[in-house]
Structures are given as structure tokens and as C-alpha cells.
Amino acid sequence: MNENPQTPGREEEERERWELLREINEFTEGPLVVLSFIWVGLLILELANGLTGFLPTLVLVIWGLFILDFLIEFIIAPRKLVYLRNSWLTMIALVVPAFRILRIFPALRLLRATRFIRSANLVRLLTSTNRGLRAMRLALGRRGFGYVILATIMILFLGAGGILQFESSSALQRAGYEDTTGIEHYGDAVWYTAMIITTFGSDYWPQSAEGRALTVILSIYSVAIFGYITATIASVFISSDNAAREKEGRSRRRPWSPALRRS
Predict the structure, then answer these.
(1) What is the spatial distance between Cα 181 and Cα 175, in angstroms, rounded to a whole number?
(2) Which of 44, 80, 127, 229 has CA atoms 20 to 30 A from the CA of 160?
(3) What separation in angstroms does the CA of 156 have from each of 104, 163, 169, 187?
(4) Distance CA 167, CA 180 (A)
(5) What confidence category does residue 118 fall into, taking pLDDT thresholds of 50, 70 and 90?
(6) Is the same domain home to 107 and 180?
(7) CA angle (26 as vertex; 22, 30 as ends), nearest 5
(8) Mind listing the pLDDT tens digit for each residue in 37-85?
(9) Secondary structure E strands in the chain
(10) Residue 179: which CATH number?
């Protein structure tokens, strides 16, 4: 049986590189959480009213920092395929914003109206939402009721931005939907998204495939989240009831003493 004498050395090097990768993650966790919140806020602004001034440049800078962090971790990771398999969603989140560069080239702006670009925008919205949720989990340190409320608020405003992007009259016309009236204002999009999340429903039905897909995702989220809220409220009542019964049981099992008898 042939054994490679370098195997123990490579195993030690691999452990050291995984440890270095863990230390880098701990060191960059705080700054990346802050950048993720800024990224989500900029995305909401972009979807609602567009970005002006230095804000588009800020988006590119943050995106570049995300790419740099990913590349550093990829270089350090001893097993590249394992790292890529565990980070496939991050890769998608880093690739999709590249389609923003199409806006720079006038000859390619027509592609923004194609189904491919609209689908890429939907993927960008979903991956950015995932980034924001991950940052919120790291910031709060746990997934409790407060996390659920804050996550729902974030999804409300992000989802409203996506609905406005896909379902405005101008967006529908660019996508080839003629003679249709969409959602014109961000406030209306927030109202529509709130009605979907709260399961009340709305009299508006999305026209585009991306708008319908986003509405389905929001509906699924609303069912899951209200199921969690219902279970949480029920557990609170059950815990209170059990505590009351336990207290009553202890009072009935109080030990006999002459002092109690004389009283």
C-alpha cells in the first residue's frame, strides 16, 4: 500500500487555512453586516425613486467590496469546490448586479426590456433580500419574534419596490404589455404588498410574469410567517396557563405545620 508522506502536512495546512478563513469571517462580519444594511437601503431607494448623485457610485463600491471579500475567501479556502457549493447563493448575488453595467451602453439599453433582464432583476431582488436577512440574523444574534417583525418590515419595502419595478405602466409597456394600467406610485406598491403579506388580498392582479412570481413568493412568506406568529402567541398563552397551574399545584401541596393549623 502506497502512502503519500505529504498527506499529514497537507492536512495540517488545510486545517490552518480553514482556521484562517474562520478568523477572516469573524473580522469582516461586522463591516459586512453594516454594508449589507446600506445595500438593502440603497436598493429600496433605487426601486422606489431611482438613485441620483453619488449613490450609484456608492452601490458600485459596496458591490466591489462584496466581490473582494468573496475572492479573498475563495483564494484562502483549501477546498475550492466545497467553498463554491456552500456559497452558490452568494455567487449569484454577486453576478446579477453586473447587468447594471448594461445601462452604460446606449446600444444595449434595449436589452433591459427583455425577459432575461427582468428575470435577472427579480433574482437580484431575492438575493439582496437574502443578504439583508442574513445581516439581520447576525446583528440580532438569534431568530426570535423581534427578528420576524423586522424581517417582515424589510420584505414589505423590498417587495413593494419590486412590484413597482415590474408593474408600473411604463415597465409593462417596455415589456410588451400594451393597454394596461399598472401601479404608478411606491406608496400604492407598499399598500398592495402589505395586503398580500397580511393575506387580505388586493383587487389588483399583476400583469407581468415577474410581478406574479413575486406576488406568489410574498404570499408563501405570509402564510409561513403568520403561522409562526400564531404558534408564538399560542405558546405564550400555553406557557402562562401551565405556569398558573403549576403555581396552583404548589399551593395545594404546601406542607402541614402546627403554625398553619393554629392559623
Answers:
(1) 13
(2) 229
(3) 30, 10, 21, 11
(4) 10
(5) confident
(6) no
(7) 150
(8) 999 999 999 999 888 889 999 999 999 999 999 999 999 888 888 888 8
(9) none
(10) 1.10.287.70
Which residue shows C-alpha cell 492536512? 11
Domain count of the fold of the chain: 2
Rounded Cα distance between 61 and 63, Å, is 5
Residue pair 203/188 in contact (Cβ under 8 Å)? The answer is no
Instruction: Give whole-number Cα distances, 35 to 45, 62, 76, 131, 138, in Å.
Output: 15, 7, 22, 10, 13
Residue identified by cell 400555553 is 238
> What helix, strand, coil percent values describe the chain, rounded to 5?
80, 0, 20
Domain span at residue 125 reads 11-141
Position 3 pLDDT exceeds 50: no
Residue among 162, 173, 157 at smallest CA distance from 214: 162
pLDDT at 175: 76
Q: Which run of H or E residues covers position 140?
A: helix 115-140
